[in-house]
Amino acid sequence: MRNFYLRLVKNGPENFLGWVVFVGLWPLSCLYGLVVRLRMLAFSLGLKKTYHASVPVISVGNLSVGGTGKTPMADFLAKWMVQHNIPSAIVSRGYGGNYSVAVARVTQGSKVAMTPAECGDEPFLLARRNPTVPVFVARRRRLGVKAAEKAGARLIILDDGFQHRAVHRDLDIVLLDSQKTFGNGHIVPAGQLREPQSALQRCHLLVMTRVQPGDSSVPKVSKPTIHSRHIMSQTLTSLAGDVVSWDELAGKKCVAFAGIARPDAFFAALKTRNLTLSDEISFMDHQVYNTESLERLFQVSRGCDALVTTEKDAVKLAKAEFLVPCYQVGVDLEFADTAQLDHLLQGLIAN
Predict the structure, then answer these.
(1) Are strands 57-62 and 155-159 parallel, antiparallel or unpaired?
(2) pTM greater than 0.85 (yes/no)
(3) Tens of pLDDT, residues 129-172
(4) Are residues 287 and 190 in the same domain?
(5) Do 73 and 182 have their domain in common?
(6) Residue 89 bridge partners (DSSP)
(7) What pLDDT, in 10s, does the model give residues 200-225?
(8) I need a labelling partner for 241 at 20 to 30 A (CA). Which of 88, 125, 188, 205 fits?
(9) Tell me, what CATH number does 77's domain have?
(10) What is the rounded distance in angstroms from the CA atom of residue 328 to the CA atom of residue 306?
């Protein structure tokens, strides 16, 4: 059912059953779209307040539901700021985290002080990748931004913030998947759009992801645009911290699993590394690895030489025990040309 729904929102109805489901969901999309438009109009008219921070705020977001690469993009920006000696901070809603306070600081000094279950897997991953950059989680991100200001941040990166207009941003970066930019063109739940396509007029820069070199089919949009692609780490790391090369897994029987928005893309990328996948297990995005799911993986590990998963999933498997090594793969964004992005970032820090 999950795969059926994902195909529906990505490609549109493909058969009679698809049309039945789509027609049933379409009124809900119209209602949701109306609510979104009214909410955005309230911000535009000043009926809903927007907090203006005392330092520049960069928002990293997307127009559609699902994995376009927001976390790697936020990671890239955090590292860019470190390279340019700009004290920055990351503020996230902490989706999936069970923290109960208004604002929580994921990092204390250079150490990650919260678990993925507490702060959410993406803030945990960003904190682990950037030990010198404070990461805050807050349901009301305005409070997280204020905490980051108080902590001395001179620039704030707002993770998944395009629809969060309660905080003013000085640079709005929106990521779009070049493979199926707007899905079937409809708003959730009949499609995968969070807002109408016209909302892109608010952004300052578009980042088209998953663009392969020489691909001429990438949609053209009337906004400054840069192209990027997802690249996997050059090595794999086990849950115990052992590093191996891709060649060491060649010829071995591997089982891949992922609890991300686009597990199919992850599995396809693994095959380009000549891995022999005897099974591919898709979990829900932000999967909680409970006793049932861990037992399933444990049983699968009986018949293979290694398990392979994403870095995002691996942060939630610290206490897992399998019969074979479980390797994690990191993902970064590689840009064709960063001139436009560099120009915008230099403008922010110059001011």
Answers:
(1) parallel
(2) yes
(3) 999 999 999 999 999 999 999 999 999 999 999 999 999 999 99
(4) no
(5) yes
(6) 156
(7) 999 999 999 988 877 766 777 778 99
(8) 88
(9) 3.40.50
(10) 11
